[in-house]
């Protein structure tokens, strides 16, 4: 049986092309199971997984929880609100207490970049990063790439435009790593103030003009304007943002070709995307959500199998 090369999923940065292809192949078989009448398999029976969410989430939290349930794992759900974090307990003490309850895997969303890596270095558990601040959101990057790949048949030489608030996004880096590894060409587009300088370290090109970017691409992944992470004004107004960088039906209708439209969610209607674009036949936002469950099942399964092998060989 093929094995994933990593023991934790901290970021797509740490994965190989073979790892991603293995995750996609495994997700294909889980997707088939998810379309059956009985959507549950006993694969992770006996494994206990804790979902630790120190930041709000709808899609990622529910998608991981459903993936775990579909694989018959036992689940603990933790959110910062209502926990002893409010009494001053540290992250590492919280996690060590949870691990003392014989938990096998930890899913963590945290506002601090590097939180998942910190836990992987300081605990014995298998850690999956469900979004660490503005750093990475690996399962989202993987499911976005999987969704484009499923629709276009391959990512080799496909052109993907990542549009919007790249500066505050954790999805952008995970997208760039996944897409580059699978052979796609990537451009980023948005107000210059929302494009981080470190973007030059990656194999991407900055496109300042949205119409040019849309004319170039096969798929556009629209990132949310993350108002909650902004401590200063990065553009004059939301109206101006929408006029210059929002995807409108007119932007799509002007193109002499069809492009896929993705958004990792949650969406800000009327800011980065106009409501009417959501009804476009090439808008695959809900496909992304559906694929997310299969991708997360694949990641859980591959990491749990690797862990079993490590424990057996000890
Ligand atoms: N895409 C995503 O991470 O959404 P949530 O914040 O709702 O989990």
Q: Provide the spatial order of strands within the biggest beta sheet.
A: 7-6-5-8-9
Major sheet: size, sense and barrel closure?
5 strands, parallel
Highest-level CATH class of the largest domain? Alpha Beta
> Which CATH architecture of the largest domain would you pick?
3-Layer(aba) Sandwich
What name does the CATH topology of the largest domain carry? Answer: Rossmann fold
Report the average pLDDT across residues: 96
Sum up the overall morphology in one term. Answer: globular
Question: What integer value in Å does the Rg equal?
Answer: 19 Å
Task: Describe, in plain words, how this protein is organized in 3D.
- The chain has about 325 residues and is of the alpha/beta class.
- The chain folds into two domains: about 10-135 and about 290-314, Rossmann fold (3-Layer(aba) Sandwich), CATH 3.40.50.1370; about 140-290, 3-Layer(aba) Sandwich (Rossmann fold).
- The chain is about 40% helix and about 15% strand.
- It is built from ten helices and nine strands.
- The protein has helices at about 15-35, 60-70, 90-100, 115-120, 140-150, 170-180, 210-215, 240-245, 250-255, 285-314, and strands at about 50-55, 75-80, 105-110, 125-130, 160-165, 185-190, 205, 220, 260.
- The protein has a five-stranded parallel β-sheet. A four-stranded parallel β-sheet has the order 2-1-3-4, sandwiched between helices.
- The protein is globular and about 60 Å long.
- The two termini are about 20 Å apart.
- The model has no long low-confidence stretch (mean pLDDT about 95).
- The structure holds phosphoric acid mono(formamide)ester (CP).
């Amino acid at each position: 049986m093929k094995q994933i090369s990593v023991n934790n999923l901290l970021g797509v940065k740490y994965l190989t092309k073979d790892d991603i292809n293995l995750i996609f192949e495994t997700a294909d078989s889980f997707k088939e199971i998810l379309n059956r009448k009985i959507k549950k398999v006993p694969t992770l029976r006996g494994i206990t997984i804790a979902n630790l969410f120190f930041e709000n989430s709808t899609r990622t939290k529910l998608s991981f929880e459903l993936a775990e349930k579909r694989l018959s794992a036992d689940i603990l759900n933790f959110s910062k609100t209502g926990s002893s974090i409010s009494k001053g307990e540290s992250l590492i003490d919280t996690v060590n207490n949870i691990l003392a309850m014989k938990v096998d895997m930890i899913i963590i969303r945290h506002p601090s970049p590097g939180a998942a890596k910190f836990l992987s270095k300081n605990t014995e558990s298998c850690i999956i990063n469900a979004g660490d601040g503005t750093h990475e959101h690996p399962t989202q990057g993987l499911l976005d790439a999987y969704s484009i790949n499923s629709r276009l048949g391959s990512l080799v030489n496909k052109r993907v435009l990542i549009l919007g608030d790249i500066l505050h996004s954790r999805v952008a880096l995970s997208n760039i790593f996944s897409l580059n590894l699978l052979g796609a060409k990537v451009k980023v587009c948005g107000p210059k103030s929302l494009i981080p300088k470190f973007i030059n370290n990656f194999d991407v090109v900055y496109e300042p003009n949205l119409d040019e970017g849309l004319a170039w691409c096969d798929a556009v992944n629209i990132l949310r304007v993350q108002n909650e992470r902004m401590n200063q004004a990065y553009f004059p107004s939301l109206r101006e943002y929408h006029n210059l960088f929002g995807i409108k039906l007119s932007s799509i209708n002007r193109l002499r070709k069809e492009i896929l439209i993705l958004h990792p969610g949650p969406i800000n209607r009327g800011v980065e995307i106009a409501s009417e674009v959501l009804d476009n036949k090439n808008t695959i936002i809900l496909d992304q959500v559906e694929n997310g469950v299969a991708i997360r099942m694949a990641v859980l399964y591959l990491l749990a199998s690797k862990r079993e092998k490590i424990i057996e060989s000890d």
